[in-house]
Amino acid sequence: MILEHVSSPADIRGMDVAELRQLAAECRQVILDTCSTNGGHLASNLGAVELTIALHVALNTPVDQLVWDVGHQCYTHKLLTGRYASFKTLRQCGGISGFVNPAESPYDTFLAGHASTSLSIAAGLVAARALQGGHQRIVAVIGDGALSGGMAMEALNNLGRAHGQCLVLLNHNDMSISRSVGGMAWALNRLRTRPWYVRAREHALIGKGLRWLRTLLKRLYLPTIFFEELGFRYFGVVDGHDVGKLIEAIDMVKDIQQPVVLQVVTTKGKGYELAERQPSQFHGVAPFLIENGLSREEKGLPTYSEVFGETMVRLAEMDDRIVAITAAMMDGTGLTEFAKKFPDRCFDVGIAEQHAVGMAASLAKQGFKPYVAVYSTFLQRAYDQLIHDVGISHLPVRFALDRAGLVSDDGPTHQGVFDIGYLKSVPGMTVCSPGDRVDFVRMLELSLSATGPFAVRYPKDVAWDLSEELGERPAMTAGVGSVIADGRDIAIVTLGPVLRSALEARKLLAREGIDAGVVDLRFVQPMDTGLLERLAGTCRTVLVAEETTRSTGIYDAVLEVLVRAGMNITCIGRAGPGDAFPPQDKRSHLLSVYGLDAAGLVRAAHAVLDTATVS
Known about the structure:
Elements: H1 17-38, E1 40-41, H2 43-47, H3 49-58, E2 65-68, H4 75-80, H5 118-132, E3 138-143, H6 150-159, E4 166-172, H7 183-192, H8 195-202, H9 204-209, H10 211-219, H11 222-229, E5 233-239, H12 243-253, E6 259-265, H13 273-277, E7 284-285, H14 304-318, E8 322-326, H15 336-341, E9 346-348, H16 353-365, E10 369-375, H17 376-379, H18 383-391, E11 398-402, H19 419-424, E12 430-432, H20 437-447, E13 454-457, H21 467-470, E14 482-485, E15 490-494, H22 499-511, E16 516-520, E17 523-525, H23 529-538, E18 541-545, H24 555-564, E19 572-575, H25 587-593, H26 598-614
Parallel strand pairs: 2-3, 3-4, 4-6, 5-6, 8-9, 8-10, 10-11, 11-13, 12-13, 15-16, 15-18, 18-19
Antiparallel strand pairs: 1-7, 12-17, 14-16
Helix pairs in contact: 3-12, 5-6, 14-20, 16-18, 22-26, 23-24
């Protein structure tokens, strides 16, 4: 096996094309085997194998600086840069990241986990090289999906006028997480889908003798005009799975002393038929069986994403003013069925969270009921729109924040532990988090009548139904929490699905003779201050349990109310992440690490009770 003997890109630079093809096949198989066991970003990595090999053959990495957009297609890059032996730890606790990470290797130029950042990073590297007097090559790899992002567009506008070498390698596969949409994707496809153009530009007569005709052909197509008017020299289209042609093309353009765009065409999921046919479904996968693509995990309870999708369809059948907007996450947010049933009321805007929120604000102004379905960690990119476009005008835009709280496997770039902080900072924003799937549905139903911005946050996890434990539920009213059980010794105040752990912790504490109450706060903003004030008079101590960082969560607000109501600050404790980025790990283990499982809450309760006794 060739790959076993590759410890750095230097080991592959003397190989012939036949050996490189064999290496590509081995990389593809290792990626497939590992993702089937660990989960991961499969389709994007299978599509970028030959491209990655060609880059490391043609460039002098790590002296030459290679910047990956998103970084989710970097698995071959990791295999070629000394991480083959540790690749089986991909996305595991203490293992290698599923994204590029400079802490792992000098070949990882810059941390990446979100889309559309690579061109800005490349522009900074170009400026630093000029200031430092360096001569290294700078290459950014970006997909057509990520190119739709506003940050990428801003960087193109700036980078095209830069001085010196800079290669933008445009990996065109028609996909981001979902299929690429919008004008940029259409324009790039015009060039891709004209086989005669590709044949003509490679013809010897046109290529050498009639350069004016080649220029004319190029000028007929928008992608060329677009890039060249911005200051880039444009080359393409190259077969992204022909490693020989890729090396030849990169060698041809890598030393041009001005910004260059080289467009290559790849197939997402290449080499694994199921992923080629269904690239969206195999973009990010849980452990699965290679032979049929089915999950290794038994199907059990529905996930919050699934409940959201089902509820949206039901609500939209009753109210034709409901529209859904997502940013290249149709499948991940559970909107696939909604899009099929209401194609005119579902908008996938591509990797453009800012645009999604601005568009939603406009729709709300026109009397519609827009729901922006987005991952918590990605809505961070639209903070200005939350304030400027939605908040100031107090528009009823509904935000469905998937992947809120602690998130499995993807590491610091995807942890949804900051959203409460940036959501509650918007005056008039209703912010809530359900304790189970029944309350999740009720919160979505409540949001229909919202007169201002309304956010529901929920985890990437199964959605438990706690009806048996909770009994009769009070009405779902904005700003009103629920006392699940009274307790004289301590009240565990929860927000979101940590409620289930609190109910179990109450049983464990009762066995020790400790009378523990459980409160489901439900709403961060407006907060049920009256409920908290009553707790200050009926409970000896309070423990706040939350899946957010210390400075961005609910603890400070709860603490303030309780202290003002007369509770001693030493009688108030907290369980949850500190002010640090949670590491790569399984959600269940992270909950345990941060003391948010039942055992952890019992320990935290004892600590508060002990402190209160001493004071």
